[in-house]
Amino acid sequence: MSFVQKSDPLGYYAALNISPGASREEVRLAYRFLKKSYFETRSRKIKISKAQAAYEMLNDPKRKSAYDRGDVSAARAGG
Asked: Are 13 and 30 in contact (CB under 8 A)?
């Protein structure tokens, strides 16, 4: 059974292994670290895809704010 916190409805913070209070720099560094650390496998492609979606969402301050409020549709639309 998977438990998803209200503040992370799509699991983006978990995908990057960061806390909801992470700065833009921490988001960037976490994404770069994960991208370098995964091996070339099917599993890697899935994880990188999730990490890339998380990075794109959490690196933009407006989208991150909407995501943190739990408004996933507004976050996907750009704020």
From this structure: no
Q: In sequence order, which residues have a C-beta less than 8 Å from that of residue 72 and are 6 or more positions away?
A: 9, 10, 66
| 3-state secondary structure at position 10 | coil
Per residue in 42-79, pLDDT tens? 566 667 788 888 888 889 999 888 888 888 777 777 65
Question: What are the tens digits of pLDDT across the range 9-44?
Answer: 778 888 888 998 899 999 999 988 887 776 666 566
- By the 8 A CB rule, do 13 and 19 touch? yes
- The token duo for 69 is 């409020």
Rounded to the nearest 5°, which phi and psi values hold at 29?
Answer: -65, -40
Q: Is the pTM of this model over 0.70?
A: no
d(CA 35, CA 40): 10
